[in-house]
Each structure stands twice: as C-alpha cells, then as structure tokens.
Amino acid sequence: MVFTFKGQLDAFSEKQFKTFVTNNLKNDLPFVIDLTKIDFLDSSGLGALVQTAKECKKSKLGFTVVGNSRVAQTIKLVRLGDFLNLKSSLEDALNYLKN
Hints:
Largest sheet: 4 strands, parallel
Strand order of the largest sheet: 1-2-3-4
Number of helices: 4
CATH superfamily: STAS domain
Helix content: 40-55%
Order of helices and strands: EHEHEHEH
CATH topology: Transcription Regulator spoIIAA
C-alpha cells in the first residue's frame, strides 16, 4: 500500500496523520509513506513519523518513507534516515518492501 500525503506535516496536521496511519496499520500490510508532495516538515511531523516507525517495528510490519529533497534533507539532518527506512524514490521503496 502507498499512502501519499501533500501539504504540510506539522503540529496542525500531525494528529490527522497519526490517526490515518494508525487506522491503516490494522491492515497488516507493508506500506510506503510517500511525502514527495509535502512542502514543509517540522519536529511534530518528525515525531509522528518516529511514532509510526516504532509501531511498525513492534508489529513487525514493513514500511518505508519516500520524500522530496527538502523532506529527505530534514530527515537526514536529524539522523533518522535509516530508522525511517528513507528511500529516494517510490520504486526504491517498493523494492525495499519486496525484500
């Protein structure tokens, strides 16, 4: 499954993001969080991504994150690239989940 988000992932949208992702974790299917259309990512958004990663790891559920250059730079700046399974393209993310 691929979840594509657009706009901003910040303190105002974080709750909606977490609710949506948490509801879809019940499907027990590996998924991609596609942030290539996100204009802005702040610490609240990063926190939501970290929480999602923790839930996935606890449930042994495969996931990965794809971001545009701005989002990827923010994630790498705080050294969360490996933890969030950050990939540079949707194709890379889907290949990652196949393995």
